[in-house]
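An instance noted here:
***
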Amino acid sequence: MRKVFIVEDDEIIAGQVAKHLETWQMKPFKAHDFQNIIGEFEKAQPDIVLMDLKLPAYNGFYWCSEIRKISQVPIVFLSSADDNMNIVMAMNMGADDFIAKPFDLQVLTAKIQAILRRSYGESIAVHELEVKNVRLNLDDTSASVGDNRLDLTKNEYLILKTLMEQQGKVVSRETIMERLWGADEFVDDNTLTVNVTRIRKKLDAAGAEDFIATKRGMGYIVGEE
């Protein structure tokens, strides 16, 4: 399990990123003492650092240069200040990438995995997604709740995978239907409802009651606090 050090003073953003990375079998560490980032870095011993540019006390450029004095760990800047000068400075400081805010969590995950592959020369294989007490096996398209295994149809698997990848976020019915059947193919809206109902029954029977919540007029969500 790869460790990710998140240096972000916006607690909402840091929390969302951390929660999403846990789904992809990574172990996040959020910075808390922005006067002592190096101390927290050495304690976490991360495999990659996500660094905000604007931070209390010292900015991300400063901490990037300090980390580079003691480590060559990959560093990715996350910032809304994405003008060319900041991007050039970040790269000159030794950053490995620069991602502009607001960013898509799926894109962030893909970039992190690509950098880890390049940096450590290994395949970062993700074999399951986990949200709360539900695990989705990406190898055999089954799910499990504790010791209870759930066999899923292709559509049930794709629906659950789509929702778990976006845990904590509402996913519209349109998004799910496009993921399953493509944008150009007409599908009765009731077909999705039937599939979601089947998944819920299987999850309820296995002990994961109310795992999929409905947001009326919006879509579905899993992993909501």
Residues 177 and 192 are 7 Å apart (CA to CA). The chain has a mean pLDDT of 87.
